[in-house]
Design goal:
alpha+beta; 5-stranded parallel beta sheet; 22 strands; about 35% helix; globular
């Protein structure tokens, strides 16, 4: 056997990079990482645009976690900028003909903006009395209230915060939206207007790409960019072959599970995103990192990166508008979100069963597992898998 490596990792995003580092550092293995794109970092990749503004090429990535192991682990490879993510909804104001903004998730401050200070406080007091402070109460709970005003508030949040945004994001009508999803939409009985309440939140001080560079900087790791692993990986028999030869070492695959097996059971459905970047000759465009357009506009949100990264660059800012649509599998598209439902889960299970024929093949990550993971969750998964393999 002529392989010059002991483990193969397909993909250099968080799932692949963390696993590669662990196998090389703790497992003392020679690890080959194959990445189809011409850069490391997966969808968390960031870079300077032509105006010198640090942007997230594949949409905003905000790190947050309650997992101390994950935070401590990544802190080996980056310092952190303290950043508490705040998101506002920008919606038409039917009363004035203008627009109003308020924090999301919908909270006590949002209530006062939407209904006026006096009425908003009265409704807020009623909610606090019924449910207690600092609670995230779901639409379902509110709708089940015997108090008609509380039930009406649930309808307001559904209409102005949830349903139109979800229709744009997932391409569904209100009738098609999973009632279980609707039921989980919260109203936060607090004045804490942060989007996340996790113990650790922030942005890599120098950016995500430098974090990945340090993560993959190990003598036991070799990274090949611009390489399609599927042209070198053969699963047609009963054993994994790499470059034509049987390979017995661990193979960690973080790409699409359906593509790995040639779509033999049919393609798994995804949503993709179109990003339209604009560089503007001004210091600040919207005052926040993210503004959601929950009722109107074709785009779901606008991100302004300087608010997140803390980059000081007077006189210029870059924003991105985000449009969601169905993934077709075209070469220029990226699958971002698995469409989770019983039918799609059953289809994925067939690919999972096919992968199970190979004891040394592990599927890891959003695409490979056909699940939604936050960054911290996939780092935790990669660490757990590495524990098992080592």
């Amino acid at each position: 056997m002529n392989h010059t490596f002991d483990a193969l990792v397909v993909g250099a995003g968080f799932a692949g990079a963390v696993t590669a580092r662990e196998l090389a550092e703790r497992g003392n293995l020679r690890v080959l990482v194959l990445e189809r794109r011409d850069h490391i970092g997966g969808n968390a990749y960031d870079c300077l645009d032509q105006a010198g503004v640090l942007i997230h090429q594949y949409g905003p990535h905000i790190f947050h976690t309650n997992n101390k192991r994950v935070f401590d682990y990544l802190s080996r490879f980056t310092q952190w900028r303290d950043y508490q993510h705040r998101v506002i909804a920008n919606i038409p104001d039917g009363k004035t003909g203008g627009r109003m903004t308020y924090p999301v998730p919908f909270n006590l401050t949002s209530l006062e903006t939407a209904f006026g200070l006096e009425e908003g406080r009265r409704l807020g007091d009623k909610l606090l009395e019924a449910y207690g402070p600092e609670r995230k109460v779901t639409i379902l709970e509110l709708r089940q209230s015997a108090d008609p005003e509380i039930a009406a508030l649930a309808d307001y949040v559904y209409e102005h915060v949830f349903v139109h945004y979800t229709m744009k994001q997932w391409g569904q009508t209100p009738e098609e939206i999973d009632p279980n999803t609707t039921a989980r939409v919260p109203v936060f009985l607090s004045r804490d207007d942060r989007y996340f309440q996790d113990a650790w939140q922030g942005m890599p001080l120098e950016g995500y790409t430098p974090l990945f560079e340090k993560l993959l900087d190990h003598p036991g790791i070799a990274v090949e960019l611009g390489t399609d692993a599927l042209k070198r990986l053969d699963l047609s028999g009963d054993r994994v072959r790499v470059d034509g030869e049987v390979f017995e070492g661990p193979v960690i695959y973080t790409g699409q599970a359906d593509e790995l097996f040639g779509f033999q059971f049919g393609p798994l459905p995804y949503r993709t995103l179109d990003f339209r970047f604009e560089t503007l000759p001004r210091d600040d465009f919207q005052g926040y990192g993210t503004v959601n357009y929950t009722v109107d506009e074709d785009y779901t949100r606008i991100t302004e990166f300087k608010h997140m990264t803390g980059q000081v660059k007077p006189g210029v800012t870059t924003i991105v508008k985000e449009y969601s649509r169905s993934y077709t599998g075209a070469p220029e598209e990226t699958p971002y979100y698995a469409i989770i439902n019983p039918e799609n889960n059953a289809l994925y299970a067939r690919y999972q069963e096919a992968a199970g024929r190979f004891p040394n093949l592990r599927l890891l990550g959003r695409l490979a597992e056909y699940k939604y993971y936050n960054m911290d969750a996939i780092v935790a998964r990669a660490l757990e898998l590495s524990d098992q393999l080592i």
